Amino acid sequence: xxxxxxxxxxxEQIDAxxxxxxxxxxxxxxxxxxxxxxxGVVGAAIPPTLKEELEHFTGVTETLRITQxxxxxxxxxxxxxTVVNVRGVEVGGNRCVVIAGPCSVESEAQIMATARAVxxxxxxxxxxxxxxxxxxxxxxRGMGEEGLKLLAQARDETGLPIxxxxxxxxxxxxxxxxxxxxxxxxxxxxxxxxxxxxxxTGMPILLKRGLAATIEEWLLSAExxxxxxxxxxxxxxxxxxxxxxxxxxxxxxxxxxxxxxRTHLPVIVDPSHGTGKWYLVPPLALASLAAGADGIIIEVxxxxxxxxxxxxxSLNHANFAxxxxxxxxxxxxxxxxx
Length: 338
Ligand code: PEP
Ligand code: MN
Description:
Elements: E1 2-5, H1 11-23, E2 27-32, E3 37-42, H2 50-55, E4 60-64, E5 84-86, E6 89-91, E7 97-101, H3 108-121, E8 125-127, H4 145-158, E9 162-165, H5 172-178, E10 181-184, H6 192-200, E11 205-208, H7 215-226, E12 233-237, H8 253-262, E13 267-269, H9 271-275, H10 281-290, E14 295-299, H11 317-333
Parallel strand pairs: 7-8, 7-14, 8-9, 9-10, 10-11, 11-12, 12-13
Antiparallel strand pairs: 1-3, 1-4, 2-3, 5-6
Helix pairs in contact: 3-4, 3-11, 6-7, 10-11
Bound molecules: phosphoenolpyruvate and manganese (II) ion.
Manganese (II) ion (MN) binds at residues 103, 273, 299, 309-310.
């Protein structure tokens, strides 16, 4: 439910509403916008009479039900775009962000070379997996903490904030010590214990869409994180499973445009996992920005043919550098910057 306060309502009036919610064991989420201040009320046990009860409070304009099953992340509650700050890089503002780096951190030479190359080309953040969810247990599963240390070293040298995946609730504390943006992988989108634990750090979270998740399920997972009091959530469309096998996944750009309409959270796109083929990454990256994405996350490797994971969908340094001016042109065409 949304309690809409009158423009210019006083702190006492807002506090009175929050206090009444407390009497019902409900927590109010205060959203101060440029135009209006609203209080979001969520919970399993909202009494049926509460709506009418609060409408009589002084300073309250009206109370509205949130029609979507997700509440705190819904645009109904917060019409203005949320901007997530990742160590000084804003995601969700007018500027589209580019996150680039290898699928996995493999060695100091590899991560440092790619970090320098992508920064040189104009990327805003560095990606790299240290804990890798792999379909086969016999493939490279990441360097673990050693990989996190190498990412931190790359950040120290280049200044690029780092994005890396956390796979278990037990690892959240460790990964959070190094990362600037905690990635929740597609396979873990509905691992509610993991996403709540990650949410409780208060850190920015990159929530990838599950490979068979509906848009509503994806936004409900974001709601789990927001319900922990953490609104620093960036959504990432990374392709879904369909009948099509010619590409690794089917990149769902519908989801980008629809999610932007349904939620105030920033939405970025991963065309690398979305297509699985390096030569499809540039066109789909451009299409993503044209469709309204707030940024893209791309796999880049110094020598994709020798990559220990996802080489076939990774751009080499030259191809990544060549893509950047085209991304800037598309961003400009849709009224944004890069
Ligand atoms: C990745 O980013 O390397 C990754 C494993 O992504 P996803 O969870 O989308 O498959
Ligand atoms: Mn990958």
